[in-house]
UniProtKB/TrEMBL annotation:
InterPro entries: 4NH2But_aminotransferase_euk, Aminotrans_3, Aminotrans_3_PPA_site, PyrdxlP-dep_Trfase, PyrdxlP-dep_Trfase_major, PyrdxlP-dep_Trfase_small
Enzyme class at the top of the EC tree: transferase
Name of the protein this chain belongs to: 4-aminobutyrate aminotransferase
Cofactor: pyridoxal 5'-phosphate
Entry keyword set: Aminotransferase, Pyridoxal phosphate, Transferase
Origin organism lineage: Eukaryota, Fungi, Dikarya, Ascomycota, Pezizomycotina
Protein species of origin: Sporothrix bragantina
Record's catalysed reaction(s): 4-aminobutanoate + 2-oxoglutarate = succinate semialdehyde + L-glutamate
NCBIfam families listed in its UniProt record: GABAtrns_euk
EC number: 2.6.1.19
Length: 448
C-alpha cells in the first residue's frame, strides 16, 4: 500500500475505537476524544492534533533528538529552570528558540502551554504599567499590605483588551480574553476587561474593497475608543494574526498596522498571540510578518507547533523590577525545548516555510474551483497568500468533517460552521489530490 493512500474499512468511529473510548470513560471525561486509527484505518491528517504537529508523525530528526543523551538527561533530571538550570541551558536556547526569534524581540521567557504563555504576557504588561507609574520609586507599605487582601493599590484594577471571537486560552486571565464560545467561559468568573470588534470581512475580498476598508476603520476606531474610555486603564491588547478557534477570521495588514500605531500612541503593550499561527503555517515563520508593522509587537507568544511555549519580547523594562515576579517551578521544560530545536532544524534545513507558502497557493486555487462548483457548500474561502492556513464556511460543519473521515481525511472545524485546514509543514503538492478528491466526494454526496 502506497504511503499516499488512505484506507477506511470500518464505520467511523469503528468498533475498536468505540471500545477504547468506553475504556477511557471509566477513568476520565472522554467526551472530547476522537479516535481515528484504533481500527487500522489510515487518514490524511490535515488537522494535525489541533495544528500542533509541525513536521509529521515519527519524523526521523525528531526521533533522533528524542533518543539523544541530552534528551535522556533532560527527561530523567527535570530542572527547576528558574533556580537550577543545567549549564547547557543557555546553549540549548541559543540553538533552538532564539534562532527564530521574531524581528526585534531578542529576549525570551519559556512556559508550559499557550494559555500559560498568554497569562505570563499579561503579568509582564501589568508589571510594566505600574513600573512606569512609579517612575523608579520603591514599593510602598500600603501597596505591599493591600495586595495580600486583593485590594488597591497593591492589586490594581487594570485591563487587557481582546477581540470578539478571539481565543487565547483557558486560564483565568487568558479565559477573560477568550470570546469565541460560551462553552469555554460559562460559570467561570472573569475580569472586567473590554472586547473590541474584529473585522468581519466580506468575500471575495476583491469584490468588497471599500466595504472591508470601512469595516476595518470602524474596528480601529472602536479599539481606540475603548482604550481611552474603558472604566479600567487598558495596559495591554492581545490579538491573533488570524483568529483561529473563532472561525479563521482574517484582517488586512493595514488593520494590524493601525493596531500597532494605536498601541504605541497610548502606551499599551501589544501582544501578538502566535500560539497557532507561529512556526510557518501561514507561509511566514511568524504570522505577523505578513503585516509589515511599523515597529515590532511588544510581546509574541507561542506554543503548539513549537512543541514548547513561552513569549518573546524586546524591551528590557518587560523584565520585572524584582526577581521571582515571573517564576514557577519548571518555567517550561528543557526536554520540550530540545525537541523544539529539532523541529526548528527540520524547518530551516528543508525550507519548509517557503514550501508551505508555495503549496498553500496551489491548494487555495483548487479550493476556489470547488467554491465555484458548490457555492452553497464552500462559502467564503479564505487564506489566500497565507500558506496552508485555509478555511471555508459550509452547512453543518460537524457532519461535513465526519463525512471527510469516512473518505479518509481528518479535518477540523472552528467558529460556527467553518471547516479549517491545518496541514503539517511537510504537506506537499502530492497530498493535494487526496484532499481535493475527498472534498469533491463529500460535496457531491451532500448536494445530490
Amino acid at each position: 500500500m502506497s504511503l499516499l493512500e488512505t484506507k477506511v474499512s470500518t464505520e467511523v468511529p469503528g468498533p475498536k475505537s468505540k471500545a477504547f473510548q468506553n475504556e477511557l470513560e471509566r477513568h476520565i471525561d472522554a467526551r472530547t476524544v476522537h479516535i481515528v486509527d484504533a481500527d487500522g484505518n489510515r487518514y490524511l491528517d490535515v488537522y494535525s492534533q489541533i495544528a500542533s504537529v509541525p513536521v509529521g508523525y515519527n519524523n526521523p530528526t525528531l526521533l533522533a533528538a528524542a533518543q539523544s543523551p541530552e534528551m535522556l538527561s533532560a527527561l530523567a533530571n527535570r530542572a527547576a529552570l528558574g533556580n537550577f538550570p543545567s549549564t547547557k541551558w543557555a546553549g540549548i536556547l541559543e540553538n533552538s528558540l532564539l534562532k527564530i526569534a521574531p524581528k526585534g524581540l531578542d529576549q525570551l521567557f519559556t512556559a508550559q502551554s499557550g494559555s500559560e504563555a498568554n497569562e505570563l504576557a499579561f503579568k509582564a504588561a501589568f508589571i510594566l504599567y505600574r513600573r512606569r507609574q512609579r517612575d523608579g520609586k520603591a514599593w510602598t507599605d500600603e501597596e505591599i499590605q493591600s495586595c495580600m487582601n486583593n485590594a488597591e493599590p497593591g492589586s490594581p484594577h487594570l485591563a487587557v483588551l481582546s477581540f470578539r471571537n478571539s481565543f487565547h486560552g483557558r486560564g483565568f486571565g487568558s479565559l477573560s480574553t477568550t470570546r469565541s464560545k460560551a462553552v469555554h467561559k460559562l460559570d467561570i468568573p472573569s475580569f472586567d476587561w473590554p472586547q473590541a470588534s474584529f473585522p468581519a470581512l466580506k468575500y471575495p475580498l476583491k469584490s468588497h474593497v471599500a466595504e472591508n476598508e470601512a469595516e476595518e476603520q470602524r474596528c480601529l476606531k472602536e479599539v481606540e475608543q475603548l482604550i481611552t474610555s474603558w472604566r479600567l486603564p487598558v495596559a495591554a491588547l492581545i490579538v491573533e494574526p488570524i483568529q483561529s478557534e473563532g472561525g479563521d477570521n482574517h484582517a488586512s495588514p493595514a488593520f494590524f498596522q493601525g493596531l500597532r500605531d494605536i498601541t504605541k500612541k497610548h502606551g499599551v503593550v501589544m501582544i501578538v498571540d502566535e500560539v497557532q499561527t507561529g512556526f510557518g503555517a501561514t507561509g511566514k515563520f511568524w504570522g505577523h510578518e505578513h503585516f509589515n508593522l511599523t515597529s515590532p509587537p511588544d510581546i509574541v507568544t507561542f506554543s503548539k507547533k513549537a512543541q514548547t511555549a513561552g513569549y518573546f519580547f524586546g524591551d528590557s523594562l518587560l523584565v520585572p523590577d524584582k526577581a521571582y515576579r515571573q517564576f514557577n517551578t519548571w518555567m517550561g521544560d528543557s526536554a520540550r525545548v530540545l525537541m523544539s530545536g529539532a523541529v526548528i532544524k527540520e524547518i530551516l534545513d528543508n525550507d519548509l516555510v517557503a514550501q508551505c507558502a508555495r503549496v498553500g497557493d496551489t491548494l487555495y486555487a483548487e479550493l476556489t474551483k470547488l467554491a465555484e462548483t458548490y457555492p452553497t457548500l464552500v462559502k467564503n474561502p479564505r487564506g489566500k497568500g497565507s500558506g496552508t492556513y485555509i478555511a471555508f464556511d459550509t452547512k453543518d460543519a460537524g457532519a461535513f468533517i465526519k463525512a471527510m473521515k469516512t473518505n479518509g481525511v481528518n479535518v477540523g472545524t472552528c467558529g460556527v460552521e467553518t471547516v479549517r485546514l491545518r496541514p503539517m509543514l511537510i504537506f506537499t503538492e502530492e497530498h493535494i489530490p487526496i484532499l481535493i478528491n475527498a472534498l469533491t466526494k463529500v460535496l457531491s454526496s451532500i448536494s445530490a
